[in-house]
Amino acid sequence: MDNSPDLWLSKLPVLKTDGSKYDRGHCIVLGGPVASTGAARLAARAALRIGAGLVSVACDPSSLMVYATALEAVMTKPVKDEAAFAALISDPRITSLVMGPAAGINDRTKAFVLAALRAGKPCLLDADALTVFKDDPSQLFDAIRSPVLLTPHEGEFARLFGQVTDRASDALRAAKTSGAVVLLKGRDTVIAAPDSRLVINRNAPPTLATAGSGDMLAGFAGGLMAQGMEAFDAACAAAWIHAEAARLFGPGLISEDLSEMVPQVLRQLTH
Ligand SMILES: NC(=O)C1=CN([C@@H]2O[C@H](COP(=O)(O)OP(=O)(O)OC[C@H]3O[C@@H](n4cnc5c(N)ncnc54)[C@H](O)[C@@H]3O)[C@@H](O)[C@H]2O)[C@@H](O)CC1
Ligand SMILES: Nc1ncnc2c1ncn2[C@@H]1O[C@H](COP(=O)(O)OP(=O)(O)O)[C@@H](O)[C@H]1O
């Protein structure tokens, strides 16, 4: 089935007139090391723009100053180790986690992902949060119990599930194997659920082939999950909104522009 707003428009978060920011969810984005903070910052901004009430970047104390000076509405939380991270996300007001964009391919990222999955929070895993399991993908699949969305590009997909040959059937197989919703990125993005739901997103322009656009997509989907949207619906909505934002912006797009186009896309969708 092709993706369109008909599939998820009625499930987009609706604001309570007397609600507070806490009613709109709190998304935690895992920050990376000091030399590569951009990807998590893009994802955090995207999560905020799509409507999460609060967004925090959780990062090592050594990179805190970079995040703290570069971010305004997004908050920062220093977490020195896995125990500190587990304590942070145990707060019931934390409603989703986005992990992976430039997080680092190392044991720390792996331990934090496993801690997040143990906590049972809705999790979006992308980029390095997938690559860290390339030597033992079953360690990741065995840990998946909560609602999880995996958002690999074809290179990341191959590390966990093998080379892509048929995008739709490979994504479905991956969703069943992992127990997670799988969003396989590309010109046409395939979204597959373990219960065999399958949607193909076809409105993406080639201007999206630019560094960081996948990080923005992660933030959009994670931000919708923070507001209570189910992982599959959040993936479909995020993929469509991401592509529509790029289409409306037109030539010269850089990833930063995507979050700034969200108000226009949402206005068109909801009026
Ligand atoms: N501003 C930033 O800080 C940015 C940081 N990024 C981070 O940089 C790290 C490396 O990301 P990469 O995406 O380069 O991934 P990787 O370095 O993990 O993989 C790239 C390799 O995968 C293979 N591949 C196959 N299909 C591919 C496809 N459709 N797209 C890309 N590669 C494909 C290629 O062999 C390519 O060399 C990640 O942590 C990522 O989050 C990127 O997101 C770009 C922006
Ligand atoms: N040729 C293309 N046409 C349309 N969309 C594309 C094209 N190439 C990449 N994209 C989209 O751009 C995004 C790239 O994400 P990703 O590969 O993770 O990049 P990055 O790691 O730089 O963020 C994905 O959403 C993907 O679907």
Pattern of helices and strands:
EHEHEHEHEHHEHHEEEHHH
Question: How would you classify the helix and strand content by structural class?
Answer: alpha/beta
Bound molecules: ligand NAX, adenosine-5'-diphosphate
Number of helix segments?
11
| Architecture (CATH level 2) name | 3-Layer(aba) Sandwich
The whole-number mean of residue pLDDT values reads 97
Fraction of residues in β-strands: 5-15%
Specify the overall morphology: globular
Annotated CATH topology: UDP-N-acetylmuramoyl-L-alanine:D-glutamate ligase
CATH class identity: Alpha Beta
Question: Could you describe the 3D structure shown?
Answer:
- The protein is α/β, with parallel strands linked by helices.
- The protein has one domain (23-270): UDP-N-acetylmuramoyl-L-alanine:D-glutamate ligase (3-Layer(aba) Sandwich), CATH 3.40.1190.
- The protein has eleven helices and nine strands.
- The chain has helices at residues 38-49, 64-70, 82-89, 107-119, 127-131, 137-143, 154-161, 167-178, 213-226, 231-249, 255-270; strands spanning 26-30, 54-59, 75-78, 94-99, 123-125, 148-150, 181-184, 189-192, 198-201.
- A nine-stranded mixed β-sheet has the order 3-2-1-4-5-6-7-8-9, with helices on both faces.
- A hairpin with a 5-residue loop joins strand 8 and strand 9.
- The chain is globular.
- The two termini are 25 Å apart.
- The model has no long low-confidence stretch (mean pLDDT 97).
- Adenosine-5'-diphosphate binds next to helix 9.
